[in-house]
From TrEMBL:
Keywords: Hydrolase, Protease. One of its GO terms (biological process) is vacuole fusion, non-autophagic. GO terms for molecular function: endopeptidase inhibitor activity; peptidase activity. This is Protease propeptide inhibitor. It comes from Lentinula edodes. The keyword Hydrolase applies. It comes from the Eukaryota. Belongs to the protease inhibitor I9 family. InterPro entries: PBI_I9, S8pro/Inhibitor_I9, S8pro/Inhibitor_I9_sf. Residues 3-76 form the Inhibitor I9 domain.
Length: 77
């Protein structure tokens, strides 16, 4: 299981985002932080099969998912 940040397009409801969070946890993943400020989304440990389903969803032109990116440490130097 790897850590990812899933972000959603503007206007996506909290209920819609919750459905994706529920899918993560029902498949054995863990939700980390929820983002509901400048971006809407969440960080999570996501099972490979769930990640694949999210990536397929994100590839559809009218998908509510904006991005799925590996969660990593960012530094400024």
């Amino acid at each position: 299981m790897s850590n990812y940040i899933v972000t959603f397009k503007d206007g996506v409801s909290k209920d819609e985002i919750q459905k994706f969070k529920d899918e993560v946890t029902s498949e054995g993943g863990e939700i980390g932080h929820t983002y509901d400020g400048l971006i809407s989304g969440f960080s999570a440990k996501i099972q490979p099969q769930t990640l694949q389903a999210f990536q397929q969803q994100a590839s559809i032109s009218d998908s509510v998912i904006e991005t799925i990116e590996p969660d990593s440490t960012v530094t400024i130097q």
